[in-house]
Amino acid sequence: MTDKRRACLAVVWALLGSLAWVAACAAVVALIVATDGFQQHPRLGTAVAWTVAGLAGFGGLWGFWNVTWAYAFYSGGYRVRWLGAQDCAYEEFGADGMVRSFAFGYQPLAKTYAPPCRIALPSAEQWGRGTPVWLHGRRDEILLRLEDWAQRGYGEAVTLVSYPSRDG
Fold first, then answer.
1. Residue 119 β-bridge partners
2. DSSP 13
C-alpha cells in the first residue's frame, strides 16, 4: 500500500471516527433525557447532558482538525512536520505514491502563533548538492510552499537563511 493511499484512508477514518463520536454522544444525551431519573432530578440530568454535549463538541472539533489536516496533505500533496526543537521536515508524495522527506531548520523569532521566523536551507548555489535529487530544480516552488506554511495566512516576515551543504 502506498503512502498516498494511507493518507486517503487517514482522511476517511478521521471523518468516520469524528462522526461516530458525535453520534454516540448525541445518543447518550438522548438516553439521559429519556430516563425517569432526568424527570426526577432535572438539574443533575441537565448538568450531565450538557457535560456530554460539551465532550461531543470538543471531540468533534478535534476530529475536524484531524480531518482537515489529513485532507490538506492528501489533496495538496505536501506538508511540513516538526521533528524537534528547531528542526522541521518538508514531506511530499513522490510519483510512486510514497512520502519523500527533506529536513530543514526553523527558528521562530517571537512567541506567538505564526511568528516571524528564519528558515535555514541550502543556498541557491548549494541546492543541487545539499538536497535530495527529487528537489533539484524546484527551489523556488519549495521556498514558496515553506513561506506559505510559515506565515499561515498572517503574512509575518519569513527570512530565508542559507547554510552550507552537508557534504561540503
1. 106, 160
2. H
Beta pairing partners, 163: 122
Helix ranges restricted to H, the chain: 3-34, 36-40, 42-76, 127-130, 139-151
> How far is 5 from 32, CA to CA, in rounded Å?
40
Rounded Cα distance, 118 and 50, in Å: 45
Phi, psi of 13 (to 5 degrees): -65, -40
Cβ-Cβ contacts under 8 Å for 4 (sequence gap 6 or more): 74, 93, 97, 98
Which residue has cell 432526568?
A: 38
CA end-to-end distance (rounded Å), the chain: 37
Query: pTM of the full predicted structure?
Result: 0.75
Task: Sort residue 119 into left (φ over 0), alpha (ψ -120 to 50) or beta.
Answer: beta
95-150 pLDDT tens trace? 898 999 999 999 988 888 888 899 999 999 999 888 999 999 999 999 999 998 88
pLDDT the model gives residue 81: 92
111-139: burial string, b at 16+ Cβ within 10 Å, e else: eeebbbbbbbbbeeebbeebbeeebeeeb
Q: DSSP class of residue 135?
A: G
